[in-house]
Specification:
Blueprint: E1 11-14, E2 24-30, E3 33-38, E4 44-48, H1 49-55, E5 56-59
Antiparallel strand pairs: 1-2, 1-5, 2-3, 3-4
The structure holds zinc ion (ZN).
């Protein structure tokens, strides 16, 4: 299983879209829980980190990507 590094201000795409239809989220805070904000409607929510990692399709880092 791939380990996904979660960093503040990263964008992630989730497998399951938000009810508003968007599936791109911005990471606001990372801890045992992760707070993310929907880029489409601007709502934020807090998710369990493990649960979130499983529902990430991919990360959309604008900064450098470590290989
Ligand atoms: Zn939304």
């Amino acid at each position: 299983m791939q380990i996904i590094p979660l960093r503040q201000n990263d964008r992630i795409q989730l497998k399951k879209p938000h009810p508003c239809g968007g599936n791109i989220f911005l990471i606001l805070r990372v801890g045992s829980d992760v707070r993310i904000k929907c880029e489409t409607c601007g709502r934020d929510m807090t998710l369990d980190r493990l649960k979130l990692e499983k529902s990430i399709r991919r990360t959309l880092n604008s900064s450098s990507i470590d290989t």
